[in-house]
Write a structure and sequence with these properties.
Blueprint lengths: L1 H26 L12 E5 L3 H10 L5 E6 L26 E3 L2 H10 L3 H7 L3 E4 L4 E5 L2 E2 L11 E6 H13 L4 E14 L4 E9 L5 E5 L2 E4 L7 H7 L5 E6 L2 E9 L2 H7 L3 E5 L9 E6 L5 E8 L9 H7 L5 H10 L1 E2 L4 E3 L4 E5 L12 E3 L5 E2 L7 H21 L9 H8 L1 H15 L6 E4 L5 H20 L2 H11 L11 H20 L9
Parallel strand pairs: 1-2, 1-11, 2-8, 5-14, 11-20
Antiparallel strand pairs: 3-7, 4-7, 5-6, 8-9, 9-10, 12-19, 12-22, 13-16, 13-17, 13-18, 14-15, 15-16, 19-21
Helix pairs in contact: 2-5, 2-10, 3-10, 10-11, 12-13, 13-15
Length: 518
Amino acid sequence: MEATMITLFVIIFAAIVTWRTLRQSSNQCRHESAKLPRSHAVVVGAGFAGLLAARVLSDHFKKVTIIERDGAGDTAATADSLSQARRGVPQGKFPHLIIARGLAIIDDLFPGVRQELIDNGAAVTNFLRDNRASMFGFKIPRPTSTPDTMNYVFATRPFFERHVLARVLNIPNVTIVQGTASELLYRPEDNCVYGVTYRNKSGVDDQQLLADFVVDCSGRKSILDKSLKVIGKEPEVYRVDPCAGYTSAGFRPTAEQLRDIDCKCMVNMDDNPPPGQPHWSFFEVDGGLWLLSLAGYGPNNQPPSDVNKILACLGGSFTDELKTVITTWKQETPWIPYHGNQTVWRRFDLMKPGQWPENLVALGDAVCVFNPFYGQGITSAALQCLTLQSMMREHVGNGLQRDWCGLSTKVQQGIVPLLKKFWNNGQSEDMAHPSTKVISGPGRTLGLKIQHAISRELIGHILGSNDVDKTIMFYEVAQMLSPETRLLTPSIVIPVLFRTVRKALLNLFSPAAKPKAS
């Protein structure tokens, strides 16, 4: 009897061990070569997406190498931060706003960096109290008392980037190599990326950099366009040209001029301005510098770069104040035009199952390029890196420390909801302009038209009510500090839906009108 019990116990124990072994092997990658040590990760590009991705990877790999065409850059403090704009960031000399949620993520990855920005000269602007703004025909209220959630940090992109770069360079296992990545190193037999090929700063020699994991943050001209085409894995790509143009210049006021303007930010976004009249924003950034940026949609509405033509085309709210600034303040930087703002979404998530290469992740503009007019890019990159961080931690927590198989596809799928949100927010506005050209993709869908109609009525209802509490609530949602469901109150939803439906019915049954010029 005792021998029988022992035999039975041995059989059960052996069955359990066999079952656990089979279960573990089923969770492993079907390709043995994907079972790699966590020794080296490579990041292509040292923009915000690349710097934040390197910070995330530094927790999981012994060594992280960033390949950047412009090199490590300059982290030294300077009175003229715009002079540090990198060649690879053509829009680097234009105003940049990091949505509050994005800056909070960066501050979590690099504790204390927000306060460091402020201590070193970044402007802290209360978006209600310090802002003189006209949006879609409504003046934003300027209450004397507002919560801290309305305090935004304004600075030039080089100023922001310099501080984040300095933090990354202080991470012991992260290094930056100056060079231009040309293509991925790929093994077709196991669908695995194992490094990149790049040219050093002399641009002569092609060198191979082997890696266990590669994150492409090379921007709108991503190396994936060439590499995926070579290996026959081209994704579907959405391309839209909003035909938007920008012109920007920097100004520095005297103490007396600063008192006269009585604000830290001025915005004019009047709805359907006359042809040739640009939208504009003017705000303090870092080191006492102010940036003025003019924007226009359509081939005939591109803002000029000649000061006399600029003065002639200005109109709408705060025009006299702005003309005074342009003609009397000290201009520190020349007028710089910027065009070619195609929005691009490489739909890696729509590739067939098993088609996306293992050990490869694409983030930032390498996946989705937004219209810079809406200030979404940096925050989108921060949220994508947050997704990478959480999924890597989950992967490691599952006991698969040496096996990254399946993570790449999971990350590319995981960032889709937030990309879709940012993409639709921008496209719903861009598609409302007749000059916007759909090159590829779904184009002017009914969903985007409905979203645009509702968002315009929502903005009109909140700003038109002159209700400070509603305005604060709206901006906290816009800055992603509060969920969108916070706006779903009867006092907001009922009038907004009523006006949206009423306007749609009027447009449906009234005689067709010629579209207004963009």
